[in-house]
TrEMBL record:
This is MraY family glycosyltransferase. Its EC number is 2.7.8.-. Signal peptide: none annotated. It is a multi-pass membrane protein. GO terms for molecular function: transferase activity. It comes from Deinococcus taklimakanensis.
């Protein structure tokens, strides 16, 4: 029992049998179960409503595929946070306004993404909404403090304030779009979103000022895992821009919770390194498109993304997803190490991530086999 409590303490769990840890666990399971059970009904409704993604240069589907998965992730996320709020396991009153700002911003991003999925918004409109939502966070105290970033000189407040605002907008808008641009192969964004959520959750649990972040990340992790049960290749539903915007924005915003103290700059090391995969992917895509003379690199879909390159080598969407999940996990482990997280916490987190992903992936594979047995493919005469 003492060994269990010692390990729990290393993981940031003050009492493994206390209300705080149980509330985080309930939040995670609520999001997982709700999303898992909600998607089949949502998928049927989406098919009837015509909410579907048509094949294009970025996507690999060869026929229309329901694209309302982001709504299920959002629903599971919101329901779990409401449950956590009702349980009130931790004192979050001091950051309630910031949590509400994140939830409101996430709602706006999901709505914008969903409208774009169904009716196509212009890149300028999407960018404007993303900037406005970033400003919403800034006015509620969620921002990157330029003067707290390591290795940079301290500058006068008159200059640091606008620079801090600019960096915050760049952080939110950049990560939101980076995650969205990765959504091109079944299971990639859902899995990477789960990995990043779990890594940030394990890291935030090490700091007493990030309790609210733990709750939000537990909800997002559970919702993405529940969605992944239906999105691992061959997917039954995709998240669309609504889901990608939700994951990218929420991860970027939650990483700012509890970063307003002296260690603010260091607290961004983990999310930056953990999200290295979408960041590097977006960077190389943008540079490549600009080199080819494309004026609007974010609005010109092609198959030069990392997931497309890996898919070309593996010829398997499943192997591609697993490879990128592994890369994201390794990036997460590196980020945790640089943050000073204990090695055994890193190992436990990685094993937990691998176990959860294996669980949902195997469920999807078995479900697909049952689908094939019930409806065997027809041979051409």
């Amino acid at each position: 029992m003492d060994a269990l409590r010692a390990l729990a303490a290393d993981l940031g769990i003050a009492d493994p049998f206390g209300s705080g840890f149980l509330s985080v666990l309930i939040t995670f399971l609520t999001a997982l179960v709700f999303t898992w059970r909600f998607i089949p009904g949502l998928r049927r409704f989406a098919v009837q409503a015509g909410w579907a993604d048509l094949p294009n240069a970025r996507r690999l589907n060869t026929e229309p595929l329901p694209n309302a998965g982001g709504l299920a992730i959002f629903a599971g996320f919101v329901v779990s946070v409401i449950v956590a709020w009702a349980l009130r396991p931790i004192v979050v009153e001091l950051v309630n306004i910031q949590v509400l700002a994140i939830m409101l911003g996430a709602s706006i991003m999901v709505l914008t993404g969903f409208i774009d999925d169904q009716f196509s918004l212009s890149p300028l409109t999407r960018l404007l909404v993303q900037v406005l939502v970033s400003v919403l966070l800034i006015v509620n105290g969620l921002r990157i403090d330029f003067n707290a970033i390591p290795f940079l000189p301290v500058i006068p407040e008159a200059l640091s304030q606008p620079l801090s605002a600019f960096l915050t907008v760049l952080w939110i808008v950049g990560l939101t779009n980076a995650v969205n641009l990765m959504d091109g192969v079944d299971g990639v964004v859902g899995g990477v979103g789960f990995v990043v959520s779990m890594v940030l959750l394990a890291t935030a649990a090490q700091f007493p000022d990030r309790a609210a972040a733990v709750i939000l990340l537990a909800g997002l992790a559970g919702a993405t895992l529940g969605y992944l049960r239906f999105n691992f290749n061959p997917s039954r539903i995709i998240m669309g821009d609504a889901g990608a915007y939700l994951i990218g924005f929420t991860l970027a915003a939650v990483s700012l919770l509890g970063t307003l103290k002296v260690s603010a700059g260091a607290s961004l090391i983990v999310p930056l390194i953990v999200l290295a995969l979408p960041v590097v992917d977006t960077t190389q895509v943008v540079i490549g498109r600009l080199a080819r003379g494309i004026r609007n690199p974010l609005g010109h879909p092609d198959k030069t993304h990392i997931h497309h390159r890996v898919l070309a080598r593996t010829a398997s969407a499943r192997r591609t997803a697993v490879i990128l999940w592994t890369v994201a996990t390794l990036c997460g482990a590196l980020g945790m190490f640089l943050q000073g997280v204990a090695p055994r916490v890193i190992v436990v987190t990685a094993l937990l991530i691998a176990t959860c992903l294996s669980f949902v992936a195997s469920h999807r594979v078995r479900a697909h086999r049952r689908e094939l047995a019930a409806n065997p493919p027809q041979e051409n005469p």
